[in-house]
Amino acid sequence: MRTNTQSNQSQGSSQGYRSAAPSRNRRTLLKVAEFTFYIIAGVLVFFSATPWVEVGHEIGKEIIATRFYNALVALPVVGLLFTFLRWILINALGVGLWAIVNAIQIAPTLLAVPPIYAAIVEYLKAQKQPDSDNPQIAKYQKKIAEWLMAVFQDVGRYAAIAYVIELAVNLAYFAPYQGGWAGFLKDVPLWSADKILYMQFGLMVASIAAVEIIFRFVLAVWRIFRAIK
């Protein structure tokens, strides 16, 4: 009797171990997949932002040209501090511009999600009813809400403009045409296919599409998990 009981217990424990093992393996695979996604997304984001960081550096060159900045940099300790601050600011400026432009680009895709669309509409409608007792503040709140609603309704056009700006920045950075930006403008509109640098062209397209690809992938995964729940 004891032997049968021990046998049943051992079988039960072995079955429990076998059922727990696939669950642990599944969690491990999901963590590996998640970690891999973060690495790939990080590389793509860095790659996509690089041309805009260069824009920040170009703006930084104009700051260097000022006499006031040169006078500050000439100081022993303060000069080093200002050089470091300038480096931070021009990189932050480039990343900030990249973030704004890409946020505008993915806005139409984001607004295609019904819950997000409904939440934004509800928020903008609420903003049209100012909660301030000060009539001047209430007036500005209403104007800002109306402006945001107009932007919201016309977001497709703003996204198209953002893509044109992104294309111009990436064309200047990757220069996928012999002679660079100057050669590209010189041959307008009779561009020659023989002068296209296809490797640079591919990198340019990847840089422009990187954020959109990441966002659509995350959105697709979110929809799958939402459907499962």
Which structural traits does this protein have?
229 residues; mainly alpha; 86% helix; extended
Overview of this protein structure:
- This protein has about 230 residues and is mostly helical.
- About 85% of the residues lie in helices and about 0% in strands.
- It has eight helices and no strands.
- It has helices at about 1-65, 65-75, 75-110, 115-125, 135-155, 155-175, 180-185, 200-229.
- α3 (about 75-110) packs across α8 (about 200-229) and α4 (about 115-125) runs antiparallel to α5.
- The mean pLDDT is about 80.
In short:
This protein is mostly helical. It contains eight helices and no strands.
Assembly status: single chain
Biggest sheet record: none
Alpha-carbon Rg, integer: 27 Å
Helix content: over 70%
Give the number of DSSP strands: 0
The number of helical segments is: 8
- SS-derived structural category: mainly alpha
Low-confidence stretches: none
Shape by Cα distribution? extended
Order of helices and strands: HHHHHHHH
What is the beta-strand fraction? under 5%
The residue-averaged pLDDT reads 79
Distance between the termini: 46 Å
Set out the fold topology.
Blueprint: H1 2-64, H2 67-73, H3 76-111, H4 114-127, H5 135-153, H6 155-174, H7 180-186, H8 198-228
